[in-house]
Amino acid sequence: MLEIIKEPWPWYVAGPLIGLTVPILLIIGNKSFGISSSLRHICAACIPANISFFKYDWKKESWNLFFVFGIFLGGIIAAYFLANPNPVEITAKLSEQLNSYGITDRSGLLPKELFSWESLFTLRGFIMIVVGGFLVGFGTRYAGGCTSGHAIMGISNLQWPSLVATICFMIGGFIMANLILPYILSL
Amino acid sequence: MNTLENKNTDTEGINGSQLKDSGFSNFKYMLVGILFGIVFVKAEIISWFRIQEMFQLQSFFMYGVIGSAVLVGIISVQIIKRFNIKTIQGEKIEIQPKTFSKGQIYGGLLFGFGWAITGACPGPLFAQIGTGVTVIVVTLLSAILGTWFYGLIKDKLPH
């Protein structure tokens, strides 16, 4: 049994489990699924700086912080007790592309050449780690949600603005991955 | 103290409950988070490689994950509404509607850029740190800074 769990899980197991988070959070406490809002609550709790967007009762939303802390703990459990011992499998085409940028590490879910403390102090690593993170935080809040809040929770509730947001997430991702990222990776 | 400002345009992660959560009852959300984090890692959704494969249309995997998650979500929400299912505390389930703003377009595109660069949405960032890639703490701090910067210049942006 544990052997099966240690294998990478297929999409038709992972997707429905993620989808079930929507009714679970609603039923156990009337909470709408959404993760990027946790970043806003952290701002409100730590650096509100008298900005009206961060002046609200974040303690009422602290369930969200417990939830993301759980995700962090889940990451630890999965990595240390349920880890897949084999290198991550990726498509031959992607592997070839990445090799041409000198990205050959396949030991983890993130390539060490891009996401490591050594990399942080290179131009390429700085863009991947710092600029990328900034865009995630700025963009999700500007859009009023992320993949969980819009793509999953919003569309689950048949909200068309969430569909618009999700389509824009995808367009942005296609543009970056295909047209811009190759230049960043070759830095 | 206000409740969440512009609740209708930014309803993500909203607490629809009027009840006050005690510190202890919040632990059930942590438990759901733990299970969620395990799924994230075990299905390799937090993998930078999977996100590149998705955006380069090389693999069906992430489309299958998101598509089946949405399908299960839609069916669940319909069942909750149809049968008027209550929370375990007996409250009526409230889901705030999302109202359209141009932010969903501009912000959506910017988040898309960030998603393809980092290979992560906000949720996977927490799980990635958990798996031991400690430098992602910097990505998370930068995402928090990005959120803060949005709050700072929000009124000057088109919405």
UniProtKB/TrEMBL annotation, chain A:
Stretches assigned to coiled coil: none
Family label: Belongs to the TsuA/YedE (TC 9.B.102) family.
Name the chain's protein.
YeeE/YedE family protein
Checking PANTHER family in the record gives: INNER MEMBRANE PROTEIN YEDE (PTHR30574), SULPHUR TRANSPORT DOMAIN-CONTAINING PROTEIN (PTHR30574:SF1)
**Alphabetical keyword list:** Cell inner membrane, Cell membrane, Membrane, Transmembrane, Transmembrane helix, Transport
Q: Which organism is it from?
A: Flavobacterium psychroterrae
What's one Pfam family here? Answer: Sulf_transp
Record localization = Cell inner membrane
Q: Membrane topology for this entry?
A: Multi-pass membrane protein
Main localization of the protein described in the UniProt heading: membrane
UniProtKB/TrEMBL annotation, chain B:
Q: Does the keyword 4Fe-4S apply?
A: no
Query: What InterPro entries has UniProt attached to this entry?
Result: Sulf_transp_TsuA/YedE
Q: Which keywords belong to this entry?
A: Membrane, Transmembrane, Transmembrane helix
- The answer to whether the entry has keyword Cytoplasm is no
Which residues span the membrane? 29-49, 61-84, 105-127, 133-153
What is this protein called in UniProt? YeeE/YedE family protein
Q: Which organism is it from?
A: Flavobacterium psychroterrae
